[in-house]
Amino acid sequence: MSLHLLDLVIIALYLIGTIAIGFYLSKRASKNLDSYFLGGKKIPWWVLGVSNASGMFDITGTMWLVSMCFVYGMKSAWLPWIWPIFNQVFLMIYLSAWLRRSNVMTGAEWLRTRFGSGRGAELCHIAVVIFAVISAIGFIAYAFKGIGKFAVIFFPWDLSPDVYAIIIFSITTLYVVKGGMYSVVFTELLQFVIMTIAAIAVGVIAMNLVSVDALNAVIPAGWKDLFFSWQLELDWRGVIDSVNDKIQDDGFTLFGFFFMMMLFKGVLSSIAGPVPNYDMQRILATKNPKEAAKMSGIVSLVMFFPRYMMVAGLTILALVYMGPEIQASNEVFDFEQILPYAIKNFIPVGLTGLLIAGLLAAFMSTYAATVNAAPAYIVNDIYKRYFKPNASQKEYIKMSYWVSTILVIIGVGVGYMITSINDIMQWIFGALFGGYAAANVLKWHWWRFNAYGYFWGMMSGLMASLALPLFFPSLQPLYAFPYLLLAGLVGSVIGTLLTAPEDDVVLMSFYEKVRPWGFWQPIKEKVIAQNPEFKPCNTLPRDAFNIVVGMTWQISLVVLPIYLVIKEFESMLMAFTVTLLTSWILKKNWYDKLEN
């Protein structure tokens, strides 16, 4: 595709602007590690929340969402639960506040508040750093594969997807490494504004070009149904036959079973708390626990409407105008290419440039947040702690530059070896995060759980998730979750019971500061005996109710823009009513009760 000059100018101005912001903010970011990685904990909560939403508005994930919406219709609204997207609800209700009370820089550093500073704590500290680095490399490879597939459709030069990806990675890495958290957050604000304008415009264009009758003529029965039975019951024969093969390859035919596995895995992963990536970093960068909770709450509120306006818009354009061609060609079609093909064929000059700039912004947001978050673990938790504890802040910042660059190079190397966005996405969210769950659920909720249990739980879960694609390449990662969970659980329990409990002083300090609910009775009694005025947390029933309400609120925010774009106005009104009702409940039962 040969882009119009106006589109190329818009894209060039955007890229120049983001690099300029990174260099402009580099002086402020380079004061010390706290400024570089957490923005000095002075950035307003709503700015961090929008930044976090922008970081989740990634191009690779959006390509996947468009392909899923094309194939599964309204039922695709449930599929992000595989990540799980509703972990933001658990964070806003209680976990962000618990995490922020630690007042640390990284997830590895947080472990000292839970396990103290003995040999076991050193081991689990290293386990979290290893996990953070592996997950960061996985995310970089995920972004690499998506941006290359996207760029090759639009840019006029005869380059491979991987070469395009390297060029765009180089530009993004430049401003992220130079500007740190300040650069990431404030460029993400710009990126979110651009992406929102472009996304809503795509939805409006699709509504104008696609009539209800035209859409109904190219979709199978049940495509517009949000709810489902045990079987998927979505038959594309005679419409686009190859889609049935896609459904079979995805392993979603038994959709009821798949949904239960998503929910089971998603709830446990959410209770475990955020993995050590940019989401956790945004929480630790807030000013206080109350702002951490509000920051996690605003992510869902601002992200879903524009993102799903674009997803639904591009989907129905592709269905109506590309669907017959796909069926007639009788060739294997890469459904992950629907997004770039739809933009190429249906978006007008000017808006194409804005949309490509916006999607580049979405990619850069996620990628930038990952590249900024991961080096904190190596520099702060390894280099500073074990090698140069008394080095200057300037040396630590310089080391961060090198670590960021090396991680990008490794991630690009992994990206070269991957053929599918879906493969790496399923592995990250299904397998890698599955191995993380057991130890991290126990660390919050069981007083007897100790550092050795955490280390062996993390390492056994991590080894199982790394072994999965080598020994069982055809096994859907989500269906492997119970085995990964069991591996982590066995390691956690055996490691804990074969070693001594943590010191009471450490446990009492943690419990008094964080005030978690769960199996803490022996420690709770000791804290109250020492401090009779201490008030333990008794919010479990309220938190559980708010989580159910919050998950309902979140899914209504997802389906609302899809119903709008496909012109199902009666269903849209029902979704809007659910959104208003659940918002009112959360206002009364969560927001108004946040502790100052």
From TrEMBL:
<feature type="transmembrane region" description="Helical">
    <location>
        <begin position="296"/>
        <end position="322"/>
    </location>
</feature>
<feature type="transmembrane region" description="Helical">
    <location>
        <begin position="6"/>
        <end position="25"/>
    </location>
</feature>
<feature type="transmembrane region" description="Helical">
    <location>
        <begin position="189"/>
        <end position="210"/>
    </location>
</feature>
<dbReference type="GO" id="GO:0015824">
    <property type="term" value="P:proline transport"/>
</dbReference>
<feature type="transmembrane region" description="Helical">
    <location>
        <begin position="45"/>
        <end position="66"/>
    </location>
</feature>
<feature type="transmembrane region" description="Helical">
    <location>
        <begin position="150"/>
        <end position="177"/>
    </location>
</feature>
<keyword id="KW-1003">Cell membrane</keyword>
<feature type="transmembrane region" description="Helical">
    <location>
        <begin position="454"/>
        <end position="472"/>
    </location>
</feature>
<feature type="transmembrane region" description="Helical">
    <location>
        <begin position="399"/>
        <end position="418"/>
    </location>
</feature>
<feature type="transmembrane region" description="Helical">
    <location>
        <begin position="544"/>
        <end position="566"/>
    </location>
</feature>
<feature type="transmembrane region" description="Helical">
    <location>
        <begin position="424"/>
        <end position="442"/>
    </location>
</feature>
<keyword id="KW-0472">Membrane</keyword>
<dbReference type="InterPro" id="IPR050277">
    <property type="entry name" value="Sodium:Solute_Symporter"/>
</dbReference>
<keyword id="KW-0739">Sodium transport</keyword>
<keyword id="KW-0813">Transport</keyword>
<dbReference type="GO" id="GO:0005886">
    <property type="term" value="C:plasma membrane"/>
</dbReference>
<keyword id="KW-0769">Symport</keyword>
<feature type="transmembrane region" description="Helical">
    <location>
        <begin position="78"/>
        <end position="99"/>
    </location>
</feature>
<keyword id="KW-0812">Transmembrane</keyword>
<keyword id="KW-1133">Transmembrane helix</keyword>
<feature type="transmembrane region" description="Helical">
    <location>
        <begin position="252"/>
        <end position="275"/>
    </location>
</feature>
<dbReference type="Pfam" id="PF00474">
    <property type="entry name" value="SSF"/>
</dbReference>
<keyword id="KW-0406">Ion transport</keyword>
<feature type="transmembrane region" description="Helical">
    <location>
        <begin position="120"/>
        <end position="144"/>
    </location>
</feature>
<dbReference type="GO" id="GO:0015193">
    <property type="term" value="F:L-proline transmembrane transporter activity"/>
</dbReference>
<dbReference type="GO" id="GO:0005298">
    <property type="term" value="F:proline:sodium symporter activity"/>
</dbReference>
<feature type="transmembrane region" description="Helical">
    <location>
        <begin position="478"/>
        <end position="500"/>
    </location>
</feature>
<feature type="transmembrane region" description="Helical">
    <location>
        <begin position="354"/>
        <end position="378"/>
    </location>
</feature>
<comment type="similarity">
    <text>Belongs to the sodium:solute symporter (SSF) (TC 2.A.21) family.</text>
</comment>
<protein>
    <submittedName>
        <fullName>Sodium:solute symporter</fullName>
    </submittedName>
</protein>
<dbReference type="InterPro" id="IPR001734">
    <property type="entry name" value="Na/solute_symporter"/>
</dbReference>
<keyword id="KW-0915">Sodium</keyword>
<dbReference type="InterPro" id="IPR038377">
    <property type="entry name" value="Na/Glc_symporter_sf"/>
</dbReference>
